[in-house]
Design a protein that fits this description.
The complex is a heterodimer of chains A (587) and B (163). Chain A has 587 residues and is α+β, with helices and mostly antiparallel strands. Helices cover 52% and strands 19% of the residues of chain A. Chain A is built from 19 helices and 16 strands. Chain B has one domain (2-162): P-loop containing nucleotide triphosphate hydrolases (Rossmann fold), CATH 3.40.50. Chain B has helices at residues 16-21, 31-35, 88-104, 126-133, 150-162; strands spanning 2-9, 38-46, 51-59, 78-84, 109-114, 138-141. In chain B, strands 2-3-1-4-5-6 form a 6-stranded mixed sheet, sandwiched between helices. Classes of the chains: A alpha+beta (587), B alpha/beta (163). The interface between A and B is medium-sized, with 23 and 27 residues.
């Protein structure tokens, strides 16, 4: 065949080649396939790691495909071998909890900062007003001001049916009714493409962006799927492209699922991962800068100042209360209630002995402000030693003749007092509560006799005058029968009487009284009437004469004879001279 | 959960919107019906085997002055032609709409004769009606006012979409 090469031979050659190939490789390359099949394990095993690595490096598809598989495996594993997993995880949980608490705290602090920054800066307040004016929620307004753009929500929609296959959003609350919105969006798109599509142009008109003042729906169209992103702010081209790429990628990844779509959206759940990649945002440059929340700082400072002021006030109030409470240490004062009232005043209820220091005096002595006290006071008697001492000292001021000496709080009195005054002093001392031993105290006080009294108070003079008068009036001298001679005994009596009478006359002078002594003689019934009359007179005169002899001036003496005193009894009892002091005021 | 799109079509005034009004959960106002010619509501139907979420596209009443937007039918799993037993014309128009739909789609359809609470006032005989019904999987006689057969009708559609 090689020697006669011509055109006719060419098909033969090819047929021969095919034959040869079939012989070597086997029918339909059976031999090679068989060899490969036999050694598949080794061949793939040699390169599998490298292949995965290369593919992963090329694009991230491997991870994407593997993730749901791994997730499912782990889920199954955990379900079936939960005991072991508990064992594995147990030592980690503590650390995990601590870490998450730390994370929570730092997030909380960050959020608080954010709130302060957004709420308590001038800008924050301005934004709040503007948000209110434009009728959007504050958070939306903040987002629109803070972000160059922010993808709030991404929807994946089946184009033909308008059914929502999956959706992801920044916050849970935004994702409501995505299915109705998806369907309506499809309808609106149909409406628009039908209404504005040109009749001649067969290509369909489609919505690409629906835009409001600060919100836009970016619609990326694939052959079967729509990817719709709800975006605040102005979206840059590269992000728009990213949506398109994501949509294409999902088409590629879920080609089979899309082709067999029967309304069951479960198969598209893993697509959430790709959709989440589209939830991007970019901060405004100025928002990234740390703003100083001047207003917050001011407010904070004010708060601190306010609290310090209140604290200081409260401290002062407490101090004042404590100082005032010290009044309880004063003798004769019992604090029954003390409490703060108002910002700086104090309500004070006490029981006070009249002898104790007054609250005002005490406060002045402590240099405390008396105007801040509302005082209610009740009186009581205190037995405390200092007050007893006060009372005794005060009492003794009325008795200048008595001196007092304190030793170890025990008083000793000394001095000379007339008996009457001594008695009254004793009475007063007894009246002092807590001093029951008046007599012991008074043992050092000597009684002074009345006759040398220099005290010429009329009461005392009068008393003395009356005592003397009584003494004189009770004197009787007796005589023998029929006699008018004075016996010795009678003379003694008259001697005493004369001295008493002298004192009485002196007292009467001081009292400015006129005084006189009536000397009455009497006799018994023995003998004649005339005789007896004369005898009685003689007896009276005898007594008078004797008194004159003792130095009594005669004009004070008036002697009369009473004669027989008509009393039933007779005998010595009636042979007498009796006396009576009469006094009368000067005319 | 399985989601299915269905469409309600019919002449004006047969009570399509009333049929879904008390039966569904919706967020869009009825003014959309006149604005873009469709209002969409959803309803989860609990069939014993599984749950189906029906996306009910309530299309604007179709009459001689106003055609219908065929694009709204895309992707629908079933549709219902709604007529009104008090107006003979409504069945004629309903059948016309049915034919128009058939030109672009072969999805299953049911016939709904609404206003069953009112007396029959059209001149179609039982036989004539049965003749028309043959073109549908099944026909229902409903009342949007009393709710008679409404739930059964939607449940049947839901089952239909799963076939």
């Amino acid at each position: 065949m090689a020697n006669n090469p011509d055109a006719k031979n060419v098909p033969d050659d090819e047929a021969a080649m095919r034959e040869l190939r079939d012989i070597i490789l086997g029918k339909n390359r059976q031999h090679v396939k068989q060899v490969l099949k036999d050694n598949a394990r080794e061949i793939v095993g040699d390169v599998v790691i490298e292949a995965i690595h290369d593919r992963q490096k090329l694009n991230q598809e491997f991870t994407t495909v593997l993730t749901p598989v791994v997730q499912q495996s782990v889920e199954k594993s955990v379900k079936n071998q939960s005991e072991q997993f508990v064992g594995y995880l147990y030592p980690l949980v503590g650390r995990l909890v601590r870490k998450s608490v730390t994370a929570f705290l730092s997030e909380f602090v960050e959020k608080t900062n954010e709130v302060i920054e957004n709420s308590l800066t001038f800008k924050g307040i301005t934004w709040r007003i503007k948000a209110w004016q434009s009728g959007v929620s504050f958070s939306q307004y903040v987002a629109s001001q803070t972000f160059v753009f922010k993808v709030e929500q991404v929807l994946l929609i089946h184009r033909e049916t308008g059914i929502l296959l999956n959706s992801v959003s920044q916050s849970v609350s935004d994702s409501t009714d995505g299915d109705l919105i998806s369907a309506m969006l499809t309808a609106i798109n149909d409406f628009v493409s039908d209404s504005f599509g040109s009749q001649k142009n067969t290509s369909e008109q489609n919505l690409e962006v629906i835009k409001t003042e600060d919100f836009s729906l970016v619609i990326k169209r694939g052959p079967q799927l729509l990817l719709v992103a709800a975006v605040t702010g102005n979206i840059p081209q590269n992000i728009s492209t990213k949506f398109q790429i994501t949509n294409e990628y999902i088409h590629k990844l879920y080609a089979k699922e899309i082709a067999n779509f029967n309304g069951d959206t479960v198969v598209f759940e893993p697509a959430a991962q790709q959709l989440s990649d589209c939830l991007v945002a970019e901060l405004r440059p100025e928002a990234q800068k740390q703003r100083k929340p001047i207003l917050a700082i001011g407010l904070f400072t004010l708060l601190i100042l306010g609290f310090s002021f209140l604290g200081l006030k409260s401290y002062q109030h407490n101090q004042f209360l404590e100082q005032v409470s010290d009044i309880a240490h004063q003798p004769g004062i019992i604090v029954s209630n003390i409490e703060k009232s108002g910002w700086q005043n104090i309500k004070l209820e006490i029981m006070r002995d009249p002898e104790a220091i007054s609250v005002e005096d005490w406060m002045s002595s402590q240099q405390l402000d008396t105007t801040k006290i509302s005082l209610s006071e009740k009186q009581y008697l205190s037995l405390e030693a200092p007050l007893v001492k006060n009372r005794l000292n005060k009492l003794l001021k009325q008795f200048p003749e008595v001196s007092i000496d304190w030793q170890n709080e025990i008083p000793t009195l000394s001095g000379v007092l007339p008996n009457v005054q001594r008695l009254s002093l004793a009475r007063e001392i007894n009246a002092i509560p807590g001093l029951p031993y008046a007599e012991e105290l008074l043992s050092g006080v000597v009684t002074k006799e009345l006759d040398t009294i220099s005290d010429d108070s009329p009461e005392i003079l009068m008393a003395l005058f009356e005592i003397n008068s009584a003494k004189i009036d009770s004197t009787q001298i007796e005589f023998a029968q029929g006699q008018s001679e004075l016996s010795n005994e009678a003379k003694d009596q008259l001697l005493t009487l004369s001295s008493t009478l002298k004192a009485t006359i002196e007292l009467a002078k001081k009292l400015e009284l006129n005084v006189g002594l009536i000397i009455m003689g009497a006799s018994d019934s023995t003998g004649s009437k005339q005789f007896n009359q004369a005898l009685s007179q003689k007896r009276a005169f005898a007594a008078r004469q004797y008194l004159i002899e003792q130095g009594i001036e005669p004009e004070y003496l008036n002697a009369i004879g009473l004669g027989v005193i008509e009393i039933k009894a007779t005998g010595a009892g009636l042979r007498k001279v009796i006396f009576n002091v009469i006094d009368f005021k000067n005319e | 959960m399985i989601q299915k799109k269905i469409c309600l079509l019919g002449p004006s005034g047969v009570g399509k919107t009333s049929l879904v009004k008390q039966f569904v959960e919706g967020i869009f106002s009825e003014k959309y019906l006149t604005t873009i010619g469709v209002k969409i509501d959803k309803k989860v139907i609990d069939l014993t085997i599984e749950q189906v979420q029906l996306m009910i596209w309530d299309l604007e009443g179709i009459d001689r002055y106003c055609g219908f937007q065929p694009k709204y039918l895309r992707g629908a799993s079933a549709y219902a032609i709604i007529t009104d037993q008090t107006r003979s014309q409504s069945l004629v128009e309903g059948m016309e709409i049915h034919r128009m739909v058939r030109e672009i789609s072969d999805i299953p359809a049911i016939l709904v004769v609404n206003k069953s609470d009112l007396d029959v006032a059209w001149h179609w005989t039982e036989n004539e009606l049965n003749g028309y019904s043959k073109e549908f999987v099944r026909s229902f006689s409903t009342s949007a006012k009393t709710g008679a057969q409404v739930e059964e009708m939607f449940k049947f559609i839901a089952q239909l979409t799963l076939k």
